[in-house]
Amino acid sequence: MTAPAQATLAVSTVIFALRSDAESDFKTLWLPLVRRTREPFLGQWALPGGGLPAGEELAMAAARTLRETTGLTPKYLEQLYTFGDPGRSPGGRVVSVVYWALVQSDEAAHAVVGDNVQWFPADRLPDLAFDHNRIVEYALWRLRTKVEYSRIAHAFLGETFTLAQLRDVHEAVLQKALDPANFRRTVESSGTVVDTGERVAGARHRPPRLYRYNDSVRAVALGPLGPSIG
Amino acid sequence: MTAPAQATLAVSTVIFALRSDAESDFKTLWLPLVRRTREPFLGQWALPGGGLPAGEELAMAAARTLRETTGLTPKYLEQLYTFGDPGRSPGGRVVSVVYWALVQSDEAAHAVVGDNVQWFPADRLPDLAFDHNRIVEYALWRLRTKVEYSRIAHAFLGETFTLAQLRDVHEAVLQKALDPANFRRTVESSGTVVDTGERVAGARHRPPRLYRYNDSVRAVALGPLGPSIG
């Protein structure tokens, strides 16, 4: 067996939030990026993250570096994937363990925004540092497959939501418009959501119904390792 | 930001195969383990794996160490999870990127078995080195959630299979007996498999029908990063 080499370990986070987009009719996914203040890739945008200190647990390091760079503190971060191509970082191998979270808009609003931290639409990113464009592309793909079998709206929207809000989430993730009547039929026949009997407060004419997930339908969770992203 | 510390990187693999089990009525999941020939955990069983050389890609290192220790060469390995608790290895932090594969019995038969390599039933493992029991437990959990929405029988059985073989896979993964008639109804109504029109060759009386997955039902794949486990 070849002797193991030392490598630099880093953590990065992909944080998706749903936002209105002036350029399109439907909501889109946005994520916060941090401008690099040192080489390599000085001045380029990158995912929030940093190095892994010796005694710190991976998810803790991801949460800490996210908080330090953006002010964001999602309720939990799920491990997405580990990227370790030998050539992904100039000047020495860096293996990055990437975490992700979907956050609600009130949580997203806590982010510190300034010259060195900004939100970008996920489908119109600049050239990012390292292989971070590829990481975001992978995260988007995972989200698209996940939306079909998990409680993804819950992560973006909270406990209760209207069918229009749920459709917004699916449209943003799938990046296509969905027919409202077809969407309603599909969701209602799936049995995954139930009518709470309540309606949106404050709406004057025919306030929309509020739904919640059907707890008897098992969620896709993280199992023995902790809570889930959606 | 705290400066990144160097850490030792390792790769490990969890390889599941379906085998008949003398102690139970249904097939069970087995995996190959390798006896450690050095400290720490000298003499204990561990997942196949090894250190990550500087210039080697993660999945390549996983495939190479698996081949070197067990002789197994699965068609592809999927990244499962990265384990990095600071205390998981005595004498210095080791972060392990774990890959997994489901293999068919003909592939499993290629494994070199000897004093230092043996197959164990996944639900009756000895005390393994490091946190490898926890890693197997996590892999089993992922498999149980995956069986409900992916083409898992394909990975264990090949292109065509009987409904009894498909039930064997589900029973092994879910660790419970399934009613044959109910299972048949559920699978047939799901539309995920189609009758090939062929039957098992060689069976004399009512040879069972052969099924294959319905290609028009999208598989859960690895997307932009490569092929999928099931």
TrEMBL record, chains A, B:
Ranges annotated as spanning the membrane: none
Keywords from the named record: Hydrolase
Sequence ranges assigned to domain Nudix hydrolase in this UniProt record: 6-144
Any matching Pfam family: WHD_NrtR
Highest rank taxon of the organism: Bacteria
Matching Gene3D superfamilies: Nucleoside Triphosphate Pyrophosphohydrolase (3.90.79.10), Winged helix-like DNA-binding domain superfamily/Winged helix DNA-binding domain (1.10.10.10)
Coiled coil stretches, renumbered: none
GO molecular function, one term: hydrolase activity
The protein's name in its UniProt record: NUDIX hydrolase
Record organism: Cryobacterium fucosi
